[in-house]
Amino acid sequence: MRAITADARIAAEEDIPMDDFPRFMKCAENRIATSSQATPGVEGYVFDGADGSQMAFWTCSETASSAPHAHEYDEYMIVVQGCYTLIIEGRRIPIKAGEEYFIPKGVSHGGEVVAGTRTIHAFGGRRAERVRK
Fold first, then answer.
1. Cβ(80)–Cβ(128) under 8 Å?
2. Domain residues of the chain, as ranges?
3. Residue 88 phi, psi (nearest 5)
4. Of 21, 36, 48, 61, whose CA–CA distance to 132 is shortest?
5. Is the pTM above the cut of 0.85?
6. Per-residue confidence (pLDDT) for residue 27, from 0 to 100
7. Class of the domain covering 22-123
8. Which of 33, 71, 74, 120 makes the best surface tag, with the fewest CB within 10 Å?
9. Which residues of the chain have pLDDT under 50?
10. C-beta separation of 82 from 97 below 8 A
11. 3-state helix/strand/coil string of the chain
C-alpha cells in the first residue's frame, strides 16, 4: 500500500519506492529518546494506544547490532525497507522488506540491522520514552 501524497503518487507511477516515512509520522513531539533505543544509529518515533500499547517507526542510518533483550509484552514487527536479522536463541532470522515477525513476551531477542532499513513495531506494552524538552 502506498501513501497518497503528491510525491508518493509520482513515485508510485514511476514505481520508485519511498525512502523515508512521511513527515506527519516524524513529529518532533513523538521522537524516541536515545536512552529508549536498543540499537545505535536509529531514529525513532512512537505513538501510544489507549490500552498502553505502542507503535514505533524506526529508520536505521548505520549498520548496527542490538543487544539481546526481552519484553514483558508481545512485539510484532514488519520491515518496510532493507533487512533486519533477528537473533533468537542463536538462530539468525533475516527479515526483509515486506516480511513480518511476531515475538512473544519473555523471548530474548537481539538483531543486526543494515543501514537504510526502516521498520514498524507494535508493542503490547510501553516500550519507548519520548525525548524530553
1. no
2. 22-123
3. -130, 120
4. 36
5. no
6. 87
7. mainly beta
8. 33
9. 1-3
10. yes
11. CCCCCHHHHHHHHCCCCCCCCCHHHHCHHHEECHHHCCCCCEEEEEEECCCCCEEEEEEECCCEEEEEECCCCCEEEEEEECEEEEEECCEEEEEECCCEEEECCCCCEEEEECCCCEEEEEECCCCCCECCC
d(CA 97, CA 19): 12
Place of cell 533487512: 83
Going by C-alpha positions, the residue among 84, 77, 76 that lies closest to residue 116 is 84
Long-range CB pairs of 102-105 (<8 Å, 24+ gap) are 102/74, 102/75, 102/76, 103/71, 103/74, 103/75, 103/76, 103/77, 104/74, 105/70, 105/71, 105/72, 105/73, 105/74, 105/75
Contact 45, 25 (CB under 8 A): yes
